[in-house]
Amino acid sequence: MSTQPAPQPLTYQDLMGRISAPGEGRSITDPATGQEVGRSPAGTVADLNAAVAVARSAQPGWGARSHGERSGYLNAAADAVEASAEALAELLSREQGKPLNGPNARFEVGACSAWLRAAAAFELEPEVVVDDGETHAVVHYRPLGVVGAIGPWNWPMMISVWQIAPSLRMGNTVVLKPSEYTPLSVLGLAAVLNQVLPEGLLQVIPGGRDVGEALSGHADVDKIMFTGSTATGKAIIRSSADTVKRLTLELGGNDAGIVLDDVDPQAIAEDLFWGAFINTGQTCAAMKRLYVPEAIYEQVCDALVEVAAKMPMGVGLDENNVLGPLQNQAQYDVVARLVDAAKASGARVLIGGEPESGQPGYFYPTTLIADIDNANPLVAEEQFGPALPIIRYSTIEEAVEMANGLDVGLGASVWSADPARAREVAARIEAGTVWINKHGAVDPRIPFGGVKQSGYGLEFGVAGLKALGVPQVIAG
Length: 476
Ligand code: NAD
Description:
By secondary structure, the protein is of the alpha/beta class. It contains 16 helices and 20 strands.
């Protein structure tokens, strides 16, 4: 039996003491207040190369352990996250901006332990594919080696765990490059996990695009797990080509929600709202355009406005808030530009659309826009913020055509009182996941991935474990 050291509960001050040195590295500021949260080590390509060498030498020993032993470590890692959950949530809230409450910082930290435990629990047996008396063929999943993980700034801890947990479970070691906007959250998470993990299994190297490029092209890295924009995904395909790396690419989306004409608008309004505004809209698989039939268009708009008006937005550490700022100036500018374009086109602002000037923080008010054309940039581009366009349709054919009209396809949803009818519409939508009467409800047991330019490869569940192994067939 393996014995893992017991995790120590860390306070916020303990955690920051481990990851941030005063006066050194890069200043990271709170997007709600502009105040410094801490300082991140700069992280260079030389640091990355050293980390890959450590990961390479630690891998054979880790890969030789049994699934049971590795799962034991993942469960200990989940215990460690739970022991320091409040410190992690506070750091996430300060650095990313998301409130402690609502489907935000505490929720994200909870998801970290849930995904670690789920990755520990799955069974992945060798698959006997032929056994007919003459031929016996079995597919085994061996460790890949070193996995390079590259992550975004919107769910920095949870997405890191999505990359780390199946990698470690399958016997790989991990070198992770977090987003330059949220390095402290990922360094904090790793400090907590590394209380219980053997040395060299998980290393975090902060840094910018140069470090990400070096990781993607590194000859001693066997696979890249990437979550981020489609543009960066394409760059990673190019920089990984010479080493023929395996890739899992979770890229941008622009998810459609289609409401059918048999719903009760009041009954679905709150779930519709959170389907779009989770993490203040900064979520890959959030609803980013909503299609509503003529017959109930005004009722759905009114019900959404009623919900939106009562959701408090503000500084994340204030326990009352459930919506926060945009994480950075560039993202704020994208949302402001797209809403301005919608307003200039004559679309109707139901709520929001007028940011307050002179306030600290990248706050953009919760915005609902009606009577908007499907070709408007607020519909056609991924806004990744708290602004939802609501588009009218008259026939299901028209709604499905508009939903499928873009070159991305991560998630989608269909809303109906009749699940069979909803499933029939769902089957016609070009997206990796279509949810019924909910949106973005990722689940560690259910495979998740995009189609079209939203990427390829599956995460979660047994399918997700297989993606972190190299299949080897033994046939005789
Ligand atoms: P981004 O692509 O700008 O950055 C992601 C990461 O890639 C960062 O760590 C960045 O430093 C790194 N990077 C940048 N250029 C690189 C290069 N040339 N080579 C290697 N790495 C490089 O994405 P973002 O703005 O941080 O995240 C928002 C985007 O991520 C949105 O499009 C969103 O839809 C998408 N996203 C997708 C999922 C999913 O599961 N499909 C989940 C979350 C976010």
